[in-house]
Amino acid sequence: MLKDNMEQARIAEEKKKEYAADRRKECLDIWQAESKKWNNVQSWAYYEYKDECEITYKLPVSDRKSKQQCELEYNTCKESMSKDSFDTYCFMAELSCIDQTFTKTF
Known about the structure:
This protein is of the alpha+beta class. It contains three helices and three strands. The protein has helices spanning about 1-35, 65-80, 85-100, and strands spanning about 40-45, 50-60, 100-105.
């Protein structure tokens, strides 16, 4: 009985790894297709824990903001959210603003 449970757990873990590898490959394919379509594609990442493919793009010059504008947006974000939830979201938004990038999730 214990041996069957261990085997089922091993098979389940193997399927999970195969799925993640397939999704990573799919994300790379999306990045390659986007790179052929757009000249501002910067990077890609697959986050297994949330099963998301994220493609990062450089903002067009007309949409870029100054560091001061980014800091102002960060402070506005921080003030509008609860103490526990603002940290990561607002910080990541500020970093994207300063880096002059945006991301799309697939």
